[in-house]
Sequence to fold (305 residues):
Amino acid sequence: MKPRWIALPFGLAFGFLLSWGRMTDPEVIRSMLLFREWDLYLLMGSAMAVGMIGAHLLRAANARSFVGGEAITWTRTRPTRNHVVGSVLFGLGWSIACTCPGPIAAQVGAGRFGALFIVGGVLGGIALRGWQPPRRTVRAPDEAAPATAGL
Amino acid sequence: MDARGSWHVIGPLIGLTVVGMLWVTNRPLGALGGYIDLHDWLRRPSGKIGWRFFFLVGVVGGGVMHSLLAGGIHPTLTYGGFAGSFGSPLVEAMLLGGAGMLMGFGARTAAGCTSGHGITGTALGSPSSYVATMTFMGTAVLAAHLFALLGGGR
Fold:
C-alpha cells in the first residue's frame, strides 16, 4: 500500500471529528471567536497537549514509521515575516467565513455545497500566491514559504 | 451522533489522530496541503496528485460519514453563519469566495492553517507555528468582534 492511500483514513477520522465536534458549523466558530463559548479553545488545547505527549512518546520509544520504516522525525522552523503576514490574512478570511480549510472539506461531505465557494477561493488564493509576474530577465523563482510542520 | 461531541472527547481524539498519522506515515497532519496538492495537480493534470490530497478526500469522507450517522445528507447551497444577513445569494457567494482567497493566500504564505500550525505544529513544538497560531487567532478574534460591532452586535 502506498503512503498516499494511508493518509486517507486519517483524513476520514479528522473530518468525522470536526463534524462531530460541530466545528463545521459557522455559528459555533463565530461563538468561539466572540468568546461566547470556550469549548473550542479547550478542544484545540487538549488536541495539542495529547499530540505533544504522543509525539514525545514516539520519539522516546525510537518509534519507526509503518510506511517507510524510518525514524519518526519532524522539523521545527523559526518564525519569519511570512508566518505573521500570512496568518493575519488567514485570520481575516477565517473571521469572515467563520471556518477554515479543514471544516470546509467536511461541510462539502455533509452536502453543504455553499462551502464550495470557499474551496474555490482557497484554490484561487493558493494560485495567486504562486503567481509570478512575467519578466524579461530570467531569475530564480522566489522560494515560497518554507516547508514546515505547518503543511 | 446528532448531538455535539464535547471538547474533552473530540480534542484528545484529534490529538491521537495527529499522533497516529505521525507514527504511521511520519508526516504532519494538516488540511492546507491537500488544497496545495489539488492546485498543483489542476495546473499539471498529467502528473500524479500528491498524498496530501488523499488526506483531504478523507476529510470530505468524514463529513459524509458523520452526516449519515446524524440523520442523512440533505444537500443545500446555503452556508449558514451570516446567511441571510445580506439578502443576496450572489453577495454571499462572493463573500465566501473572497474569504476563501484570503485563507488560501494567507495560509500558503504562512505555510499552514488551523490544523497544520494550530494543532500539529504547536504539538510538535515548532516556534513558527506558535507565532502563526497566535497571529491568526488574534486577528480572527479581533475581526469577529469588529464585524459584530459593525453589524449591530448580532
